[in-house]
Fold this protein.
Amino acid sequence: MPKIDRSAFLYLDPKGNKDTFAQCSTCLLWCGEAKQLCAIHGDKVRVRGTASCGFYIHGSPRPEQTVAKIVTPAESGLVDRKVRCENCQYFDTDDSDCDLFKELNEEFPELFYLEEKVDKHGCCNANEPIRKIGVKESVKEPAKRIGLKMAAENPKPNGIGLEVKPGVYLVRHAKTALNSDSSRDKIRGWIDVPLDATGKEQTKEIAKQVAGYKPVKVYSSDLQRSAHTARAIADAAGIDSIKAERVFRPWNLGEFQGKSAANAVPIIKEHLQKDMQDKKIFGGESFAQFRDRYLEALKKVLDEFTKSGKNIVIVCHYRNLKLTEAWLAKGGSKNHEIDAKMFTTDDMPPGTIARVVPKGDDWAFEVVHKGATVGGKVGAS
Ligand code: SF4
Ligand code: SF4
């Protein structure tokens, strides 16, 4: 059986004026700047020069041509934006590949033989805008559009009765000697405190549950309380090694580390105010340093998940989970705006499991398990 090539996606090689290629202003069917109409969409559909649709025919617009309602915008795939590969979330700027074509070749080799090199001015009918938080959309939506079934469409219960969803799973490490109830809880920050006996017990429970989400890779903060928890998860999931990285450490709270969490909370809140976000905590980091360091690393992992469609785990700390939640509550903005109230709400004990899952063009944060069952509710990390 012949395989599907990229002509099935109506891929267009750029020619003529590359800056306007595949846009209405260089389409034979456009009626020009003055009319802003197209020959096949009727006289009620305004078509700007920078729009485009799947019926593009390279040529000179003809203002005098007859306008008839032959297709609807939905039928033609009309979009009011520049549709070039360089404006598409599947375009890989490093090597000028189309990640959608690449993914389909890898996932369905029996079906596809797609030339992966694309011109940045090229275009195809699967063109998707770049997402606002700068990570790429999963191949699942276009794959669905062309009639393919992806496992991600149907979350399935895993072996221990939990709903498995595709996404990046965030796990707070198990208990340490510095975790306690809110009145005695101590700020841990970058202090490399090990898990205590209760924490070591908790890792078994956490590992069993997280392995059930079928991860293929485990990232971790390089602090031992996270790395130990991550190692247990990797073992339970049959993954050889963990990737322990400093970027997944919590906020370095400098002089407050090892001291009462209750006393530090007002200072932390003060440092979340706009004019204080760049001010360093003595001996530690500013909020902006922590926020940008961690969120940039998280975005890379989300991008990795998007490309592979395979679940990934990051074992980190209380404030990393809270920051993720507070950032996504504000839409996952490029400038890393957060919901400060949410960030300071104390509600994710050690062993908490959350996940970041695709939701339309955005990401959603879901807590799937609040803390391991031993160790009690604790405060800041
Ligand atoms: S809407 Fe489509 S067919 Fe009409 S002018 Fe634009 S690209 Fe051409
Ligand atoms: S990068 Fe986007 S527009 Fe270009 S061929 Fe791939 S899916 Fe189509």
